């Protein structure tokens, strides 16, 4: 397979069409006559789901390492760790004969209820995009491809195959496409998977603007667009719109439709050829990179899964330094709640991994503290319901022990692909257990196993310590023991807000939609963008997480007080470990524009770093900002715009714990000049250096002169430029206004009409 174009020329129309759908559920079509082999694809994201029976859509899968789910891994805020997991997934893929891993998923967490949130990273596109890029780099460094999914706006499972996500252009660009854009541009995934849903009325599987104009023409994506399994509606318009490969296969009826459409002239054969070329390129790449494998080292990957799980868990609360427990102390510990022996560590649906082994938390705790004595009580029924007998036994055990560890969470089946949760509640039996135990045992720590926020309202104020274990994969139990007994210092931070009530969530009134449509009425204001702008207090804010040590944030220094569009800015500060233990801190950088023409959130994440420090040690942390980090998307101008002016740079330990600030001024020459047109206010024109000089040059002296003589009345300043003829009572005519706009546009680099 050298000259792919020559190969396409040798193919019959039928062969070309057949290549555009899979041969089976997990393989592409091979064409023996031309020496075209097939490739194998497999789910993702947090482990391999390679079906044991070849070609079966639903089949038991071969054991593979179940790493922490994306919702957990994101809480590590650790690009290097995510890259390492990617490499491990790549090597498992090779060992199991998989060429393309159907991962990662980078959709935004718009509501805590989305059944698939555990498969996604964050409510923030910068964090999600960067972690997805690290994941892709890791997998693809092993010669295995990735398939970034689900493109786009698949933010709920309710009616996922039919619902139309109604999202304004600006919101799409800044929130729902942004993580895809970042991952595509930073890491170049081999393929991308369109979603099931419609976007503003059109199925994404046939959305030309999405699959071609934005993805390929703007972002430069060169890989294959694959349909989600069964997402194809109209195969022919999908192909023309940019959807290359239909999965699962085979799909003879659609192959025949492609042939017929070309014959009848309804489909340009060049569109088909383009798709075929891209698929051939993927196949060639996959086989070029494929080769010898070293087999799967189960134990090594389990250890990595444990390290990753520990780095991903979040210590949400630790009053009176209840944790860590002293492993050398021969005390008594009550382990309460069935999830202490049957952990919940992944969700349901296509991402479900058949793990190579599973750590049992109770066993791991015993191993971590051999001198302590442990008791165990189930605490609640298997289905989560309360049971008076089980509860009574647990309360007695809690009373008799010196410390209680209560294991709760969302039972298997609650979080899954295919449906959303109805509420944020924990099962009643779990809540009862926490409340009853904490009444008799003040030294109680709760361990929470869940892939999306749950309601903490009834009990969070009563418990001194709370560890978010998340859905941390098969080694979750070992990681919990590492953290509770201080073998590892917690360093995870929330990648999504834990709201005080479901009703506080900004999508609450617009979820899950009705009559086949869901309006993203909250616009840009999802997650902390909403809670922080609206000053709605959550239980735990975005970016929050505690450590067993403490960190001091030193003063911020900027590489310059001013920034130009072509330049970049470095923001640095020293971070010091001021406590007794080694630890890692996640440092976050947010940008807050002082003023903006269009509404903007009060702050947005534009940098993060994880730094490890020995006690007393200090290290510099440096972030680099570019013009894009200050920009918003102006749908009227179809471009990213950063207005000149001042921007505050906030560095903090969470979105609500800002430790230092500095301000940078964005100076002339930015693309903000594109902003000025006849509808822009006179104020905007005067405030812009290029705008002002154009006015002064082209307006009659008596009008221009007024701009120099102290401030004009505010109501005049707010009028659009096009009202100058009226305002000047004829001294300025319409042609002059047009000239001003055109000439200002030229010196601003805007194409003249
Ligand atoms: C899911 C995808 C998955 C595919 C193949 C679909 O139901 O939405 O994420 O990759 O199935 O299992």
Automatic annotation (TrEMBL):
Molecular function GO terms recorded: beta-glucosidase activity
Entry-linked SMART domains: Fn3_like
Protein keywords: Carbohydrate metabolism, Glycosidase, Hydrolase
Domain of life from the UniProt record: Bacteria
Alphabetized SUPFAM superfamilies for the sequence: (Trans)glycosidases, Beta-D-glucan exohydrolase, C-terminal domain
Keyword tRNA-binding: no
A GO biological-process term: carbohydrate metabolic process
Coiled coil stretches, renumbered: none
Domain Fibronectin type III-like stretches: 585-655
Transmembrane segments: none
PROSITE patterns linked: GLYCOSYL_HYDROL_F3 (PS00775)
Hydrolase is among the record's keywords: yes
PANTHER family: BETA-GLUCOSIDASE
Similarity comment: family membership: Belongs to the glycosyl hydrolase 3 family.
Name of the protein in question: Glycosyl hydrolase family 3
């Amino acid at each position: 397979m050298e000259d792919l174009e020559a190969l396409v020329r040798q193919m019959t129309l039928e062969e070309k069409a057949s290549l555009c759908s899979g041969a089976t559920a997990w393989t592409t079509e091979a064409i023996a006559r031309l020496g075209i082999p097939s490739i194998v694809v497999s789910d993702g994201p947090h482990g391999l789901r390679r079906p044991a029976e070849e070609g079966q859509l639903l089949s038991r899968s071969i054991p593979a390492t179940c790493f922490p789910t994306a919702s957990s891994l994101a809480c590590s805020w650790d690009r290097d760790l995510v890259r390492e997991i990617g490499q491990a997934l790549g090597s498992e893929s090779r060992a199991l004969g998989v060429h393309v891993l159907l991962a990662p998923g980078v959709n935004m967490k718009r509501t805590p209820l989305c059944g698939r949130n555990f498969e996604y990273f964050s409510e923030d596109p910068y964090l999600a995009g960067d972690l997805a890029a690290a994941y892709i780099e890791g997998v693809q460094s092993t010669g295995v491809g990735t398939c970034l999914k689900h493109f786009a706006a698949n933010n709920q499972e309710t009616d996922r195959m039919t619902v139309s996500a109604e999202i304004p252009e600006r919101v799409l660009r800044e929130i729902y496409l942004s993580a895809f854009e970042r991952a595509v541009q930073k890491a170049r995934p081999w393929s991308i998977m369109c979603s099931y849903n419609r976007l503003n009325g059109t199925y994404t599987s046939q959305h030309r603007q999405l699959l071609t104009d934005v993805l390929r023409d703007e972002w430069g994506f060169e890989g294959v667009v694959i349909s989600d399994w069964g997402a194809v509606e109209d195969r022919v318009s999908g192909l023309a719109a940019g959807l290359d490969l239909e999965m699962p296969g085979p799909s003879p009826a659609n192959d025949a439709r492609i042939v017929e459409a070309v014959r009848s002239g309804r489909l340009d054969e060049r569109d088909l050829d383009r798709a075929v070329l891209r698929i051939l390129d993927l196949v060639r790449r996959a086989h070029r990179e494929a080769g010898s494998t070293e087999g799967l080292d189960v134990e090594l990957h389990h250890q990595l899964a444990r390290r990753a799980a520990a780095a991903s868990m979040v210590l949400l609360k630790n009053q009176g330094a209840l944790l860590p427990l002293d492993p050398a102390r021969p005390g008594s510990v009550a382990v309460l709640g069935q999830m202490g022996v049957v952990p919940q560590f992944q969700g349901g649906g296509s991402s479900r991994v058949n793990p190579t082994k599973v750590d049992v938390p109770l066993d791991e705790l015993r191993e971590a503290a051999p001198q302590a004595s442990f008791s165990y009580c189930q605490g609640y029924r298997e289905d989560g319901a309360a049971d008076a007998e089980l509860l009574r036994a647990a309360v007695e055990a809690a009373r008799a022990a010196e410390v209680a560890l209560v294991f709760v969470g969302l039972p298997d089946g609650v979080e899954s692909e295919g449906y959303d949760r109805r509420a944020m509640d924990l099962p009643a039996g779990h809540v009862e257990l926490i409340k009853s135990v904490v009444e008799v045992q003040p030294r109680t720590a709760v361990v929470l196993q869940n892939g999306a926020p749950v309601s903490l309202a009834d009990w969070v104020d009563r418990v001194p310590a709370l560890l978010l274990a998340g859905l941390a994969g098969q080694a979750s139990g070992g990681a919990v023991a590492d953290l509770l007994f201080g073998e590892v210092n917690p360093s995870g931070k929330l990648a999504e807000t834990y709201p005080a009530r479901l009703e506080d969530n900004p999508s609450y009134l617009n979820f899950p939609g009705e009559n086949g449509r869901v309006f993203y009425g909250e616009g840009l204001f999802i997650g902390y963008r909403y809670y922080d702008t609206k000053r709605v207090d959550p239980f735990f804010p975005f970016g929050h997480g505690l450590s067993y040590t403490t960190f001091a944030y030193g003063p911020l220094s900027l590489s310059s007080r001013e920034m130009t569009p072509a330049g970049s800015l470095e923001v640095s500060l020293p971070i010091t470990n001021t406590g007794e233990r080694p630890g890692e801190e996640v440092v976050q950088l947010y940008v807050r524009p002082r003023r903006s023409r269009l509404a903007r959130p009060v702050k947005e994440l534009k940098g993060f770093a994880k730094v490890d420090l020995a006690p007393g040690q200090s290290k510099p942390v440096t972030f680099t900002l570019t013009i894009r980090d200050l920009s918003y998307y102006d749908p009227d101008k179809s471009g990213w715009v950063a207005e000149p002016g001042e921007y505050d740079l906030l560095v903090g330990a969470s979105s609500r714990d800002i430790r230092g600030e500095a301000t940078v001024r964005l100076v002339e020459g930015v693309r903000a000049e594109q902003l000025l047109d006849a509808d822009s206010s006179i104020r905007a024109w005067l405030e812009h250096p290029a705008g002002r000089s154009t006015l002064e040059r082209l307006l009659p002296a008596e009008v221009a002169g007024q701009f120099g003589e102290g401030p004009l009345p505010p109501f005049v300043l707010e009028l659009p430029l096009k009202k100058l003829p009226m305002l000047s009572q004829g001294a300025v005519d319409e042609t002059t206004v047009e000239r001003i706009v055109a000439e200002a546009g030229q010196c601003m680099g805007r194409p003249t009409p």
